[in-house]
Amino acid sequence: MIPNIVMSVGSEEERKYVYKNMGERGEGEENKIWIEGINEVKNYGEDENSVGKYSDNKVGTIIGYGREVGEGKYVGMYMKGSKHEIKQGAGNSGEVVNVGLGISGKYENKVEIKWLTYVGMNKCRTEIGWEEGNVKGEFSMGEVGIDVEGGLKIRSELIGIVKPYIGIGARKSSYDKVEEKGKIVDVKIEGGSYERCVGRIGVEGIREISKRVEIVGRVEYERVIKGEVAGVKVEGVSGKVLGVREGKERIR
């Protein structure tokens, strides 16, 4: 369960909310306040890191403020609060409460360049169901991240605006030592970190229906450059903690 929590938190992407709320050049908005609800459901398959499928349900809110500081130049800041509920099999669960903030910016001329930075803190809890009783753990995890995206803004009579783009995001999550306690087991996990880097390429189409209504379509391909799995080591033991199967947490 611990590797699943680390990987779920470490794979978050604030840019999906921040970038679309940056003001467009020529809108005439010197100041902009925006708010977005977060409601995501992700299902992960079994891999080297997790011996079984698991789901991650996340809800929260992200709020931001931005300002034009010159022709085609935009800077902003944002704050986020969210909660993850992670489930894997019968009786196995994790919970993460997250708060974070960041700054962002955009430069728009013949090209469009967007960027953001992020720092966050997470309080994490785990519970593993054993026949002899549940095993519980609790730990903290900090995060730092950066994302950069660049592209072109092409006007088309057929579509409206076409934006081909390329981007890359990197994130590091550092967690404290973890101790899972129960009636029959006491497992100590070393503190460590999870580093993730993801590249992407895509194209976005925007068709304006009116000043207040527009249709947006996006096609994107992502590739994980680093961080496909999150290894978590047991203290004083050669191996790592994996996920759970049939109510048992397994150590290899």
Tell me what the structure shows.
The protein starts with a helix and ends with a strand. The longest helix is centred in the N-terminal third of the chain and has 9 residues, at 2-10. The strands form three sheets. Strands 1, 2, 3, 4, 5, 6, 7, 8, 11 and 12 form a ten-stranded antiparallel β-sheet that branches. A two-stranded antiparallel sheet has the order 9-10. The chain has two helices and 14 strands, in the order ααββββββββββββββ. It is mainly β and 252 residues long. The radius of gyration is 21 Å and the shape is elongated.
Concise summary:
This protein is mainly beta and 252 residues long.
Attribute tags:
10-stranded antiparallel sheet, 252 residues, mainly beta, elongated, two-stranded antiparallel sheet
Shape: elongated
Oligomer: single chain
The residue-averaged pLDDT reads: 82
Task: Return the string of H and E elements.
Answer: HHEEEEEEEEEEEEEE
Give the strand content. over 45%
Please report the distance between the alpha carbons of the first and last residues. Answer: 14 Å
Computed structural class: mainly beta
Largest sheet: 10 strands, antiparallel
The helix content is under 10%
Supply the number of helical segments.
2
Tally of strands: 14
Give the radius of gyration. Answer: 21 Å
Poorly predicted runs of 5 or more residues: 244-252
